[in-house]
Amino acid sequence: MDIVELKNVCFSYNKGTDEQIDAVKNLSLTVREGEFVALVGHNGSGKSTVAKLLNGLVLPDSGSVTVDGKSTDDKKDLFGIRSVLGVVFQNPDNQMVATIIEDDVAFGPENLGLKSGEIRQRVDWALKCVGMYDHREGTPHRLSGGQKQRVAIAGVLAIKPKVMVLDEATSMLDPIGRDEVIKVITRLNKEEKMTVIMITHFMNEAALADRIIVMNDGEILLDGGQEVFKEEEKIRKAGLRLPMPAEVASALNAKGLDLPRGLVTIQQLADELCRKE
Q: What single DSSP character describes residue 227?
């Protein structure tokens, strides 16, 4: 079942001026319930605009955006859409609204008008999901970047969305913090069956997804599973790098070693190298 649908969507910034930017051009895509999708592209490719379109922060100039059967064009549906689809943005500090961690996570459920007992249960569950329950009475400013982003994810989880969108949510983190967040997201998708749309320019992260959509200049360039990474020329043309194992394989091939394209994990690369011995 499709839970997200964009149909012939166009969106521009600075409309009607000499500096008009066509961020999204006649974009159509669907996301199935429970799917883990990576949306990748260089800066200005339109991928972050897609995140804003999905929860109604911006509305399409033409075309339609539907989430769980509700249209972002209908103001009456926006509350329902934002209860179903949660967005985690790039900078966790911009999403912190309280001075105590558990109060921050409770902000979303409180705005849904839930009873205090239900809010307590959701806050505890969300913090346990991201491994931050022991910090619940602490203050956000004492946390590392990775911990702050996990609290931001907990704040979205507490509304119990069907879809989580991560808009460059790991781009400001160090490798350890990035790994913390990715592990949480992968587990939520696999164990909680949550639909995940991860917007990123880190191709090693994208390789973890079930489906990879490559955007370029507001349009979809590639859409598929890990076989997408075999399209080395198109990926580089879009201003992106291949996952590290694929980059290593490509460099080795340039030296005369015949390795297959589309290697995306270190294990796959190691297995192929062992076969060459």
A: G
CB 186 within 8 A of CB 155: no
Q: pLDDT digits over 78-103, tens only?
A: 888 988 999 988 888 888 888 999 99
Inform me whether the pLDDT recorded for 184 exceeds 90: no
Residue 108 near residue 158, CB atoms below 8 Å: yes
What does 141-185 look like in DSSP terms, one character per residue?
A: GGS-HHHHHHHHHHHHHTT--SEEEEESTTTTS-HHHHHHHHHHH
Helix (H) or strand (E) holding 220: strand 219-224
The residue with tokens 């704040």 is 155
Task: List every span in the chain annotated with CATH 3.40.50.300.
Answer: 2-239
Identify the pLDDT of residue 277: 65
Specify the pTM.
Answer: 0.88
Return the CATH class of domain 2-239. alpha beta
Q: In this structure, are strands 70-71 and 62-67 parallel, antiparallel, or unpaired?
A: antiparallel
